[in-house]
Amino acid sequence: MKSHFKFSKSQRNGIFSLILLIILLQCVYFYIDFSSEELSVNKADLANYENEIDSLRLVELEARKPKTYPFNPNYITDYKGASLGMSNEEIDRLLAFRKQNQWINSTKQFQEVTKISDTLLDVISPYFKFPDWVTNANQNTTSKPNYSFNKKPKTFAEKQDLNKATAQELQKVNGVGDYYSERIIKLRNSFPGGFIDIIQLQDVYGLKPEVIEKISEEFAVKTPRTIKKIVLNKASVDELVTIQHIDYNLAFSIIEQRQLREGFKSFDELKKVKDFPVNKIDIIKLYLSLD
């Protein structure tokens, strides 16, 4: 052990020099300020930059807001009405009116039928788009809303059967070209027996609601395929997954919600199910019954 602590003269000088260097560096670190000089900030430029960032943020938020496109109020569905801010009662009044094969021909008549508030009417009425023959007739007359026009909407009997329509016949509708006519027929042929209801056109990718409305003015599903509806309050997971837009995760969530509610009282309660595709509820309802 003695050999480990025995140093020569040169080694002792080296150790002493090292200790002296360490002490010197500690003194330099302690007494000398190495901090950098404070940066000067141009407050006016900084404020302009922040304002520009805020403006860009507002533009982006505005661009992300859902856009409402012109639509015919006669074809408002449960989902469309809810997205516009209408209550279930207001939507039901409109649907009941339409089931009588009657048509809304003016903004005033829409309020009379649905009884929506003036405030909501002011918000959504600018997007109302009635057929040209209705608009022209309204401009040329001062009589009450229920008009008798030469050109009336086609009755169910006058419309063509969507399940038998050819691509050429579909292309006569404004907005349906080669691309969409082929997609409609491809979707129709994917179901043995064709469509159940024209609302299934919502599953045609990219087909706008306005174009679907135009198609519904000329076509109807007159020969719907026969299906056996599934009783929602008794359905098993395996039965539910046979329905369009319902996978196993959603089926389990539906059954869990059904147990919590001790059975569904209406289809609208499905909207409370976690991850339920609310915009597809009208299609899903085609396959379901409550009893």
From TrEMBL:
**GO terms assigned for molecular function:** DNA binding
Q: Which organism is it from?
A: Mariniflexile fucanivorans
Instruction: Check the record and name the PANTHER family matching this protein.
Output: ENDONUCLEASE/EXONUCLEASE/PHOSPHATASE FAMILY DOMAIN-CONTAINING PROTEIN 1 (PTHR21180), ENDONUCLEASE_EXONUCLEASE_PHOSPHATASE FAMILY DOMAIN-CONTAINING PROTEIN 1 (PTHR21180:SF32)
Q: Which UniProt keywords apply?
A: DNA-binding
**What processes in GO biological process is this protein linked to?**
protein secretion by the type II secretion system
Matches recorded under Pfam families: HHH_3
The protein's name in its UniProt record: DNA uptake protein ComE-like DNA-binding protein
Which terms in the GO cellular component ontology are assigned? type II protein secretion system complex
